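User: Could you check the structure of this?
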Amino acid sequence: MVTPSTAASAAAPYARVKQHLKERLAAGEWAPGVQMPSEAELVAQFQVSRMTVSRALKELQAEGLVERVQGVGTFAAALHKVSATLTLRNLHDEIAERGHQHSARVLRLARSTAGSALAAQLGLAEGAEVFHSQIVHSENGVPLQFEDRYVNPACAPDYLAQDFERLTPTQYLFDATALWRAQYAIEAAAATAEEARWLQIPRHEACLIVVRRTFSRDATITLARLVHPGSRYQLEGQFAP
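Assistant: Sure, the predicted structure tokens are below.
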């Protein structure tokens, strides 16, 4: 039986360097944009060749975890890039990759007041101001997603000024905030009457419903309820050991 310590010591030298840096990035040791140890420092720390360290850093860069600037050094990647690579995708991009046309209809884009439950979800005081948007996203003219989103104004103060028929909220928040992590809940359930009407589906049709919160280091950025008709949407993923 191979113990974790035995497995780690048996790993290729570049893999040990890569795993060490990956674990420290995941622990938040380096904030987005902060310079990480130099190649020379890593060579000395791990007693390996510069080529070994370079390979580890190149793989981390390919995974979107670090950014390397020639002649300057290695930096922790912007957190929204890490999260986008690992968990979050822009619906517009998914549709475009299928060679189809994405369109959006904004139903609501306004200020609102957080009740106790919503305030708790966003980490705000009850009665605090929040931004509220409701958007129907379509693929080739067929409704695919009803997006009901609340946004913490402190994290995205210009949210209400955006044209979300041209830019999705997901893409805007990727660009405008320092996204640190995301939290999901996924269920199969019926849509509300309003959601079913805008999605043009029978009230009883099963839907895939994703409730997602995203966070910066210091605050909750957004709470979104994403409703997809079960007959038009499937959730896919891959695993490679």
